[in-house]
């Protein structure tokens, strides 16, 4: 059960915070995480099986993410990859262009999907289950799992409240550690899952600062409860 938590301006030094666990079948390649584009600059995950991404940050300061809107939902023949939709949106020039593209997208050509485009200025959420629906989100926090984004999810709602920075969290580093601990949680509400046929295969924390290169991105290439986290470098030149 995927976990996606987004907070707009949770601290004075953080414009947007994202905490995400990707859950998949063990039989599916987990994919890699790093630079996936240079014009515009994009950092995110790359799915080697179907192409596209499940989570990506554009250097213009916005994030795109997708989850299955129904647990275990698979593409049928002829349906387009949900990850390709996320990558298309992540390649837009800015948040407003990506948001307009999401409003214009035919979501019914995908398997059940939740889609989020978010920046410090706002967020747009969409789903196609039970029907296509796209809305701007006015609340400063948004949580998404594997139920339709507007249907409500008790596990996600509880995790979202727990992820809000307490008074002791004052710096980006404090907030990153707080969110890392939340993503590794096994007790209800559970964020990190270990099941017979699948579970949490990677974990990401993104803290966006004003200048893109000063943002903090941490990624674990496995379950966050036992996998070392690495900082994704935003310096230098993105690969082509």
Labels describing this entry:
4 helices; alpha+beta; 240 residues; 7-stranded antiparallel beta sheet; Penicillin V Acylase, Chain A
Structure in words:
Helices cover 17% and strands 36% of the residues. The protein is an alpha+beta fold and 240 residues long. The protein has a single domain, classed as Penicillin V Acylase, Chain A (4-Layer Sandwich).
Number of helices: 4
**Content of β-strand:** 35-45%
Trace the largest sheet across and list its strands: 3-4-5-6-7-8-9
Which structural class should the secondary elements be placed in? alpha+beta
Strand tally, please? 13
Provide the low-confidence segments as ranges: none
CATH architecture: 4-Layer Sandwich
What is the helical fraction, as a range of percent?
A: 10-25%
Topology (elements, then pairings):
Blueprint: E1 3-11, E2 14-25, E3 32-38, E4 41-46, E5 55-58, E6 62-68, H1 82-90, H2 95-104, E7 113-119, E8 122-127, E9 133-137, E10 141-144, H3 154-163, H4 172-183, E11 198-208, E12 216-220, E13 229-231
Antiparallel strand pairs: 1-2, 1-10, 2-11, 3-4, 4-5, 5-6, 6-7, 7-8, 8-9, 11-12, 12-13
